[in-house]
Amino acid sequence: MTKLTETQTIILSTGAQRASNLAMPLPKGLHGAAAQKVISMMIERGWVEEVDADMRKAEPLWRETGDGHGTTLVVTDAGLLAIGVEPVVVKTMAAIRTHAAQSPAPKPATPRAGTKQAQIIALLQRPGGASVAEMVEATSWQAHTVRGAISGALKKRLGLPIVAEKVEGKEMVYKLPA
Fold this sequence. Notes:
This protein is of the alpha+beta class. It has helices at residues 6-17, 32-44, 77-82, 87-101, 116-124, 132-139, 143-157; strands at 48-52, 63-64, 70-75, 130-131, 163-166, 172-175. It contains 7 helices and 6 strands, in the order ααβββαααβααββ.
């Protein structure tokens, strides 16, 4: 087994326990020139490597590249072997953690029959669609409630592709494509 410093061992061990083997963030107190020296040596030896940071996952940055992106550090298979850990074991554990963290796929919401929401959907499915005034008349809701139901319950929660069209000489008409 390779002779590692305490700092290198901490970075590699911690990275082996994180999702995707991220070596970032570095241990507390390790920053500036000291961090640069340790990481440069680890990159030279192939224990860690710089990869593009996934900004959607808010991965911690090692350095910014100047174009609005950045890089992060990942422990390599050689780094895992340096601390005496088989890469296959780490990858299996990461897959188990990832699978356990994912919640089951949500059941798609379906409207109940005979409700005011179902009445609005029926009006939207007509060939000419329906205006807010027509939906207000059918449901006895106020106009802001109808508009909120369209944008919230129907579009966002149910995922219906509702289209709004301005008909000349009339008010806005909402439709569900056939």
